[in-house]
């Protein structure tokens, strides 16, 4: 019999499975669960985009495309970066279309990291960064953010983690799971610190279109920062296109030319149909994005107000579609809280600890759900909080 | 203002307190705005979207097209107003195109509607012809989906 323990790569075996797997498994077996656990829009992909895909299927040969992406799409991305952020990226050298933001992150990391290199990962954050860094032999160094700072990265938090092995800072804002954003003023001191170093920034801006009250600002917009920034973005969140698997990297030409090699050998090219649809998204769907954002905004205000009313302190997130209430007052860990909430009141939420150590004491609530759905969930959570209070009183 | 109207359109029972939270306004501001919209005739009233067929599966909804000869002085108004007074009539609109007045009506059964047409509509002076279309199934009404079979294909949890 073959011994797979010996066959499998040590690094792969060393990867931790995602912390939310367990909840997924439990919730999947239960009936009538109200979920608040999903990180994807509840809206359908705007019709114009779907139509563009259908037309592609009807009229075109569906073929391999150029490695870096269809010229029409690269052009649209380049124009969009200029329009939205005032950033100038050469469509022929500085942009590559990827299979979702996930591939964008993976191949960016692989193009930068050598074994032993340290990568600063701002936490809490999306679950993929540290495992992908470790898979290529890098060392993921968590940089926790705190509620006192509205989960923003501060220069002091960052400074103390920098060593002479630090290669890259992963900057995921607007943030999943906290909903925190970084304004120009927040980013300036970070940029100031990095300008005199060779540390690169991987700025994951997948939620850039989903901000409330103010426009997204990219660190690449600051003087001297575009040359040290790998900007990752995509279509999943803004255009409700999760299943289309399409993202991109915008970065200095020397980096993109290396990234292209990995993409070329691992992926060949991003899906042809999705790329054609994405052109439509960038060129004609601003209004749809606006409508979705306005709807998210109402839900966001509703949830922040409700969680604060329930005594689960909730800071005001200005981006993405998550609120991140604090559950420390219940005396439970975030995992205990979510497990009991699921078993006892059939509401699925994600424990903050799944997004890094600094997420402990919080839960991630997605508002990619209708108001009606959210209201029903709040009723159940309120009952759960009442139960916990009674439990405490009765010792 | 549009945002407030959209919220009320979706659910007229949303409280002022909830509306205030969602719109980032005070409760007083919301109350004032609604009062103003009512005074201005923008908000005409608050009704409930009811699926009566859930109680009585035999109920029939019909759209009736009327061709009408406009009356001297009052045009279509008198006829439209006359039709509007019947309780079973749920909607009356003046239309451009192939016919003039469109009527939405709900009746106990097919016979009730056909007798309404022959008794009350066809007999009106000026009505040239009627065409009655029966509704087989309603998918969406007043902006709300009327079928609950749309399922959420997303998983329960994903990062």
Task: Give average pLDDT of chain A, whole number.
Answer: 96
In terms of DSSP E residues, the strand content of chain A is 5-15%
Largest sheet of chain A: 7 strands, mixed
CATH-scheme architecture of the largest domain in chain A: 3-Layer(aba) Sandwich
Low-confidence stretches of chain A: none
Which homologous superfamily in CATH is the superfamily of the largest domain in chain A? Type I PLP-dependent aspartate aminotransferase-like (Major domain)
Structure write-up:
Chain A is an alpha/beta fold. Helices cover 43% and strands 12% of the residues of chain A. Chain A contains 14 helices and twelve strands. In chain A, α4 crosses α11 and α5 (71-85) runs parallel beside α11. With 159 residues, chain B is α+β, with helices and mostly antiparallel strands. Chain B folds into two domains: 2-39; 52-137, Lrp/AsnC effector binding domain/regulation of amino acid metabolism (RAM) domain (Alpha-Beta Plaits, 2-Layer Sandwich). Helices cover 31% and strands 21% of the residues of chain B.
């Amino acid at each position: 019999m073959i011994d797979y323990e010996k066959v499998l790569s040590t690094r792969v075996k060393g990867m931790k499975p995602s912390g939310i797997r367990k909840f997924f498994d439990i919730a999947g077996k239960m009936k009538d669960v109200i979920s608040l656990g999903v990180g994807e829009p509840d809206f359908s992909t705007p019709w114009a985009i779907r139509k563009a895909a259908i037309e592609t299927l009807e009229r075109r040969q569906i073929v391999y495309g150029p490695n870096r992406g269809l010229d029409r799409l690269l052009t649209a991305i380049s124009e969009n970066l200029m329009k939205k952020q005032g950033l100038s990226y050469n469509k022929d050298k500085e942009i590559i279309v990827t299979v979702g933001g996930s591939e964008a992150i993976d191949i960016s990391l692989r193009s930068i990291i050598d074994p032993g290199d340290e990568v600063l990962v701002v936490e809490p954050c999306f679950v993929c960064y540290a495992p992908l860094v470790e898979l290529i032999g890098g060392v993921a160094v968590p940089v926790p953010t705190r509620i006192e700072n509205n989960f923003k990265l501060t220069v002091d938090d960052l400074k103390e983690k920098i060593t002479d092995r630090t290669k890259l800072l992963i900057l995921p804002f607007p943030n999943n799971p906290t909903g925190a954003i970084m304004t120009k003023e927040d980013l300036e001191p970070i940029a100031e610190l990095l300008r005199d170093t060779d540390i690169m920034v991987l700025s994951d801006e997948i939620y850039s279109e989903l901000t409330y009250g103010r426009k997204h600002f990219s660190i690449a917009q600051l003087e001297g920062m575009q040359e040290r920034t790998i900007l990752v973005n995509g279509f999943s969140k803004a255009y409700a296109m999760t299943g289309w698997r399409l993202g991109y990297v915008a970065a200095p030409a020397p980096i993109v030319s290396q990234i292209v090699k990995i993409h070329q050998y691992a992926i060949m090219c991003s899906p042809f149909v999705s790329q054609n649809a994405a052109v439509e998204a960038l060129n004609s769907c601003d209004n749809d994005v606006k409508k979705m954002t306005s709807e998210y905004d109402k839900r966001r205000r509703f949830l922040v107000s409700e969680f604060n009313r329930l005594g689960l302190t909730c800071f005001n997130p200005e981006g993405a579609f998550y609120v991140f209430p604090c559950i420390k007052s219940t005396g439970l860990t975030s995992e205990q809280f979510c497990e009991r909430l699921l078993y006892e009141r059939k509401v699925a939420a994600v424990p903050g600890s799944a997004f890094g150590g600094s997420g402990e004491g919080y839960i991630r609530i997605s508002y990619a759900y209708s108001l009606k759905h959210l209201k029903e969930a709040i009723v159940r959570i309120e009952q759960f909080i009442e139960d916990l209070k009674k439990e405490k009183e009765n010792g | 203002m549009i945002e407030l109207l959209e919220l009320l359109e979706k659910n007229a029972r949303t409280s002022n307190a909830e509306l205030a939270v969602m719109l980032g306004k005070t409760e007083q501001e919301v109350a004032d705005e609604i009062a103003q919209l009512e005074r201005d005739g923008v908000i005409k009233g608050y009704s409930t979207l009811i699926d009566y067929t859930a109680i009585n599966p035999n109920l029939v909804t019909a759209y009736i097209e009327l061709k009408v000869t406009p009356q001297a002085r009052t045009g279509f108004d008198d006829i439209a107003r006359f039709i509007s007074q019947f309780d079973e009539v749920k909607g009356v609109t003046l239309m451009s195109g192939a016919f003039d007045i469109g009527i939405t009506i709900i009746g106990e059964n097919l016979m009730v509607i056909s007798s309404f047409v022959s008794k009350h509509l066809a007999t009106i002076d000026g009505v040239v012809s009627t065409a009655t279309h029966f509704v087989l199934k309603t998918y969406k009404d007043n902006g709300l989906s009327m079928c609950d079979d749309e399922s959420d294909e997303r998983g329960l949890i994903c990062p």
